[in-house]
Each structure stands twice: as C-alpha cells, then as structure tokens.
Amino acid sequence: MTLTDPTVKSAPPTATGADQSAPRRAARREDKQRRDIQALRAIAVLFVVVYHFFPGFLPGGFVGVDIFFVISGFLITSHLLARPPRSARDLAEFWGRRIRRLLPATFVVLAVTIVGVLIWAPQTVWTNWLAQIAASASYVENWFLSGQAVNYLAADSAASPVQHFWSLSVEEQFYLLWPVLVMAGLFLAAATRRRQRRRIITAVLGTIVLASFVVSIWITVVNPAGAYFITWTRIWELGVGGLAACVFRWLQKRLKDHDGVRLLLAYAGLAMIAWSGITFTGSMPFPSYTAALPVVGTALVLLAAVRRGLFSPLRAMSWQPVQLLGDVSYGLYLWHWPLLVLLPYVVGHSLHRSDKLVAIAVAIALAWLSKVYVEDVFRGRKPLGVPLRRSFVFAIVGMLAFGVTAAGIIGWQAQRAGAEQGAVTHALDNPTSCFGGQALAHPTECSPHGGKLLTSATFAAADQPAPYKDNCWILGDFSQQKTCHYGSDSPTAVKVALVGNSHAGHWLPALQQIAKKENWSITTYLISECYTVDAVVTYESPARTANCLAWNKKAIAAIAHDKYDLVVFSNRTAGLMPGKDLAQTQTAAQKDYQKVLEEWSAAGRRVLVLHDTPYATDLRDVPDCVAAHLDDLSACDGTTARKQVDPAANAAQQMHDPNVAMLDLTDRICSASTCYSVLGGTIVYFDRGHLSTTFVRSLTPDIQAAADRLLRR
After folding, report:
1. Which one of 113, 209, 511, 599 is CB 3.0 to 4.6 Å from 239, fit for a cystine?
2. What angle is formed at CA 96 by the lines to CA 93 and CA 98, rounded to 5 degrees?
3. d(CA 702, CA 696)
C-alpha cells in the first residue's frame, strides 16, 4: 500500500540546488540499506490482514494503515526534495510515475472484483458495490464511505469488497496535493539561500500538518464515523512522514556516531507501534490525537535508520520472509479484502479459520503474481511512460471504463425495478386477503410466504419510504434539523404528525395511502436513532448527544403547540441513557415517554402509538438472505426472539387515556412461533430492521381502522 517506486524507497532529502546527481547517488546507496522500511511495510500489511481476518487477535491492527501513511509521506517527500518540481512538466512527470506505479494493479484487482461480484454476490448489493468500485477506480472511495458513514441505514450494509480502497484514495489525493505544496515552498524560498529554502519548505509542510491535526481532532468529535475516512483528518499522518524526510539528513549527521541513540529511537518506535496494535480498539476516538502513537512511532523508526549490530532490530527486519512480505505489501493489501468479502458467497457459509488461512495464502500468491506480472512490468518508462500523455490516457480511459460499466449495470437494475413497481402498484390497487401482512390475519386461507414473490430481493432492498429519497431525515450529528410535508395541501385537510426515529419513518407509506383517500396532510418529525424523550440519550459524540436532546425538546413542544388532529408516534428505543444499561434505560424511557404522551394529551392531541416491529437481528440483511434462499424462504425466518420490547407502547397501554391509543401489528409479522421475513409474497424488510414500503402498504387497512377509531373519540 506504500505507493512509491523502488528507486525512491529511501531517497534522502537534499538541498534543492541545481545539481541533482549527488542526491541520486545517495538515494541508490541508501536504497540498499533501508531494509527497515521494507520491514515496516511488512508490519503494516500484516497488522491490516490479521485485523481483518482475525480481529480479536489484534484489535488495533487497523493502525497498519497509519503506518503505511507515514511511510508514504516520508518516501514521497524524500523524492520531491531530491528532485523538486519546478514546472508543470515536472508535476506531470511525478503524477505520471504515480499512475504507472499504482493504477495497473488497481485496475486488475477491480476488474477481477467486478467479475466476482457479478458471479457470486447477490444482486441486492450490486448497486452499492458497483458504485464503490467506480469510486475506487477514481480514488474517491474515502469520500463515498464518509457520506455513507452518516447514514444510519448504511451501518447495517454488508461491507463492499473494495471498501479498503478508502486509504489508497487518501494517498492518491495526497500525491496530487503534496508536490504542489513543495513547489509552492520553492517559489516562496526562491530569493533565499539554499539552507533557508529547506526551512521554508519544512514550514509550509508543517503548517499543513498542524492544521490537519487540529481538524482531525475536531471532526472526530463532531462526526466520528465520517472522520475516519476524510482526507483532511488523515493528511497530517502522511505529513508527519514528510516532515521526517525534511529533517532526515540533518538528523543523520548528528547521529553519525551515536548508534545507541538510533537503537533507542528504533525500539521506542517499534514499541509504540506494537502497543497500538495490541491495545487499540474500534471504540477509541480515531484518527484524532489517538493516531499520534503509531504515527510518531513509525516516524521514529524511519528517522533512526538503524544499522546492523548485535542488538539491532535490523537483524530481524532483514529476515528474507519479512523482506518478501514488504515487497508484496501493496498487492497483498489490494487482494486480501476482496477475497475476505467474496469468499463466503463462493463457499456458501461463514468462513472458518481454515478457510481464512487458505484465503490469506491465496492473497499472498496473487500479490506476488501481480507484482511480477503487473506492477514491475508497468513501473518504468515503458510501455506507458513514453510519451508522457500515455500515462494520463491510461488513467482516464480506465477510470471511465469502470464508471461506465458500473453505471450500465446499475441502470439495468433500475429498469428492472421500474417494471416490478408496476406489479406492486397493481397488487396494491387489487389487494387480496393473503397479500403481505394480511396473510397472518387469515391463517386458514393463506400460506404465510405466499405462492410467489411479488418483487425481487433487489427491489426490496431499495423499497424504502419517501424520506430516504427526499433527504427528510435528521442525520449525522443531528444539527441540521428539519420537518417535511406529505399528502394534502388543502386548508381543510386532517393534520397529521409522524414523530419518532427511523422506526416511525417506515410507517409513512401507509399514512400516504390513507392521505390520498382521507385528505390527510402529514408533517414528519423524523430523526435517525434518537428516540423521542425529554431526557439525555448518549451517543458517540457530545454533539450528537446534545443535538438529540435539543431536537426532542423542539419536536415535543411543536406537537403540543400546533393543532394536529392526529399524532402517529413510534420509536426504537436503543440508545442508552447516562449510567444505565439497556434494561434500566428502557424502564426510565417508559416513564419519559409517558410524560411526553401526557403533555400532548393535555394539549388536546390524539396520539396513535405504533408498537415497534420485530427486528431480524439473527440476519445480516433480509433481502440478501432471500436472494440466497429463493428455493427455501423459511431459511430467512426467525423465532419470536425478534420481537421488541417497546417502552412507548407500554406507557400508552398503562395510561388508559382516551386521547392515546396503541396499535401492535407484531401479529402481522409473527405467528406464535415464527417471525417471518417474507409474507404474502412480499419481503418484509428492506434491510434487517426496517419494513419495506410494499409490506407497510399491505398494513394500511389496520392502521386506518385504528386511526379512525381514535379520531372518532
């Protein structure tokens, strides 16, 4: 993953004078000596692979990416200082080398991955995964994942086989930016002495590093999920490697006769790396200041440039298997993750330890093959470097090819979905007593699963209510608060409020059906995860915690103040309250829900509380399961353990308030012994916990009847 040419593995920074022959000779000499860099590559890729295949064995193995970042920053900055860009042509030459070094292997892995996805992965994941493959080919996968990170639903999505390209995207963006900054530093230093030029370049790069470090700390607080992928939170890690390159030769002069100090730096750095890998966990704030430990540790090893000796770690670092692993580290990083993600689909079950060991061996073999027959072939000036434009044509054509391929397949799926929507509309307009959730209401007449699936699993995966398409959710850190309107615009319309988190939002399709017939005007108060109580619910960042409470206070007051004829209320009560476990949280939440319902009732609001629906926690994704078991849909069903405790529903039942009613439709999803994933020819969920639009619409008669009874009181 360290994206550098072998000729610049340890190219030392030199004064930026006109004569470049001395630095080049020094680079070649040191290239033979820096086996420690190859060893660091081996450590980094080993950390990543072990973490991905056996996360419990090395919980902090994700810091391998941070080790790669520092190495890349060090080597690329060394190269830029030895051969500083002074013109647009120099920049183009630099970027051309990066293209020839990176893209051939990248394109091969992505092409093989596309074939694997189309052969073995369920069609339910094609749209998302192909979009990510296109993003990876263009090196913007980190921004794609950052956007998904603020999407609550995406948290349950299966990891794509190219998700690991986020770090390669960060590096490629670094390679676009960093030489421009070095050249800017040269221009700023044009009128100064050679020694001053080095200081000015170091100051320019150091300013960027400091700014990125501060941004990393800030964004990790306000948007911890997205911060992991964002370029601005990661540049400082590569920049630390760059700063190490800036001071490298100066420090080497002072360490010339101090091997003891070199050993101290090297062992301290290795200890910091090892401690990070062993003790770090995914629950820690990251990258933020936490990443400084492996980052600084890696920089210390690079600066130590430790020599051979009795107590030197270079003896172990020079071991041939370690060096070979470092040689294939880029290819191994590319290949290991697609194998890990796709192999379960190939073998038809979760991977056992033996399966994983075989997959690692295959990944190493593929890494060696791609190095010898792809990376090494395209690394030099030929066949893509002369003339220079060939490199850029190759990059553009390749990126466009992946983009067009992905767009074509996604478009084909969209066409199929359009045809299936016609069948759904017909079924909704002409419902039978066995359609969807009504199948369990007529057990003597209906087979639970139904005779034939009305829609494909692919259609079900995208069968989400309107707020997802309309961006009518409060997401991320909950700071962008909004309401949306659906249904009638008539001043005489029945005013309805839909309030809660995503488990309220999935009921909207039924309310929209009623709105068409009964002249309802619907206002949504929908937020992701945060459930509607006037109490603190803790989330992973202080901003989310505070904004959740602020939104709840605002929404509760708005419902009490505005003259809604009907309030439809539903939540999944999952987030914990401070100092409480789940059971204690649910007990406290029931009391808080009752206070909210009492406030609304006292204001004259009629409230229909919809009991939270069963959650398929035993499955990763219901449509994926259905796609894999079309010949045996019962394989995707679960026990009644899927049923949920709902403090809001319990509060409504115990109030005996004529303005508050509770409707529990669990019996439309679960029988006495089974909770179904397919009912009456419809797939119940579009993921594993949110009801599909088609299934919810099959429950419209039940919801309308309950609403009518409440409105007539």
Report:
1. 209
2. 115
3. 10
Structure tokens at 528: 């992701």
Q: Exposed/middle/buried for 672, CB within 10 Å: 0-12, 13-18, 19+?
A: exposed
CA dist list (Å): 557 to 553, 567, 603 = 6, 13, 10
Question: CA 179 to CA 89: how far, in whole Å?
Answer: 12
Spell out the residues 6+ positions from residue 506 whose beta carbon is closer than 8 angstroms to its own. 465, 613, 690, 691, 696
Please give the pLDDT value at position 426.
81
The residues, any chain, with a CB within 8 Å of residue 510's CB and separated by 6 or more, are 696, 697, 699, 700, 703, 704
Q: Is the pLDDT reported for residue 452 higher than 90?
A: no
The sign of the dihedral angle between the CA atoms of 684, 686, 691, 697 is negative
The rounded distance, in Å, linking the Cα atoms of 353 and 661 is 52
Sheet strands side by side (includes 607-610): 484-487, 520-526, 494-500, 566-570, 607-610, 660-663
Residue recorded with tokens 């973490």: 51
Helix (H) or strand (E) run with residue 498 in it: strand 494-500
Name the residue type at position 349: H
Paired tokens of 417: 């979905």
3-state secondary structure of 500: strand
Rounded CA-CA distance 648/655 in Å is: 11
pLDDT digits (tens, 9 = 90+) for 510-562: 999 999 999 999 999 999 999 999 999 999 888 899 999 999 999 999 999 99
Cβ(291)–Cβ(167) below 8 Å: no
Q: Choose among 405, 397, 404, 403: nearest CA to 103.
A: 397
Report the distance separating Cα 6 and Cα 28, nearest Å: 10
Is the pLDDT assigned to residue 191 strictly greater than 80? no
CA distances, 661 to each of 541, 567, 640, 658 (Å): 35, 10, 24, 7
Q: Are strands 520-526 and 607-610 parallel, antiparallel or unpaired?
A: unpaired
DSSP tag of 637: -
- Alpha-carbon span 184 to 493, nearest angstrom: 63
C-alpha span between 246 and 525 (Å, rounded): 54
**Quick one: DSSP state of residue 442?**
S
Distance (Å, whole) CA 61 – CA 200: 36
- The total number of residues shown for the chain amounts to 713
Adjacent-strand bridge partners of 499 = 525, 569
Structure tokens at 664: 């529990």
| Digit-coded pLDDT (tens) for 373-425 | 999 998 877 777 678 889 999 999 999 999 999 999 999 998 888 888 888 88
Q: Are 679 and 669 a contacting pair, CB within 8 Å?
A: yes
User: Amino acid identity of 91?
Assistant: L
Picking from 104, 106, 97, 108, the residue whose alpha carbon sits closest to that of residue 5 is 97
Max CA pair span of the chain: 93
pTM of the predicted model as reported, rounded to 2 decimal places: 0.83
Residue 443 has a CB neighbour count (10 Å cut-off) of 10
